[in-house]
Amino acid sequence: MKTKAVIARELGKPFEIVEAELDGPHFGEVLVKWKVAGLCHSDLHMRTGDLPGRLPIVLGHEGAGVVEAVGEGVTHVQPGDHVVGSFIPACGKCPACARGMSNLCDGGLNGMFGVMADGRYPFALDNGETAGAMCTLGTFSQYTVANMNSVVKIQDWIPFEVAALVGCGVTTGWGSAVYSADVKAGDTVVVFGIGGIGINAIQGAKHAGARFILAIDTDETKLAKAEEFGATHVYTDVEQAKAELPGMTWGLMAEKAIITIGVADAKVTADAVDMVGKRGVVVLTSMGGLDNQSINLTGLFVSQYEKVIKGSLFGSANAFHDIPNILRLWDEKQLKLEELVTHRFTLDQVNEGYEMMEAGGEGMVRGIIVHED
What we know:
By secondary structure, the chain is α/β, with parallel strands linked by helices. It has eleven helices and 20 strands. The strands form four sheets. Strands 3, 5, 6, 9, 10, 19 and 20 form a seven-stranded mixed beta sheet that branches. Helix 4 packs across helix 5. The chain is globular.
């Protein structure tokens, strides 16, 4: 079948809109018609090379849609089901899944190359090239084939614009606070970067009972949104935040810091380490540029204060539990989801959307692509 899709073809070049040929679902796969896709910074990493992968690739790894067809061996969804794409599959059988770490499922190892479980690339382009799908989802295509372990069934009354967000940004941010940072009631939490992930780290910290939540972003237009979602203090200047933090915490500093900026570097990591106190935890959710310098971890206040820097993938969440759970919290009005969407685009406007994201100043928290029927 033919499908309209957005691809990254060359590093540093704008994304391209193409017509691709897509074959049907193979064993253990489903054909999905995407309704809504989220604009996530990770797709830009494919263009910059910060996230190495195989080009060309069909982009998009956050979205919701409807199952059109299923291949042999598919067990938990059927045609007509509404689903959310999980950018990390959960096979339930690999060593990581068996230990309760499905966000590290072995099935996600080839996600940046877009290769399917049987080794093929599912999209054929007019010039004879083949293309994979980012995280084997490719939500910037009208249709895609995905592994059944990468789609989570949801109730069909949930709006696609709401459902799409929990496939990556919401769950990653919320989980970065609730799971990776393990925020406790009364903690002080610092969040660096108030985009689609950072705003949900704020929601997660608030949900977990944080006393103070400091939001830091150089884009002033995002800080009012941060307060709406639970931040108690907002800053465009990290040095001002550092100066005020001891007074509000009686000198103890923050228990947790979460880094969710577009591209992390040694400076922001060092700032986060400075702002946590004894046994403070710094969660690094952001991707970092491959050429960024490393932070010096041999300092006195890291080793002697037992500070911890830890990575976080998908917020240390379990897709098949946390995607439905977050949607239930939204339904019970304990989390904000509709309010996250600040900009809507068509598939043809994808470059415009990412230019707006990179430029800042437009208050973009989450932009979405609404696919045409």
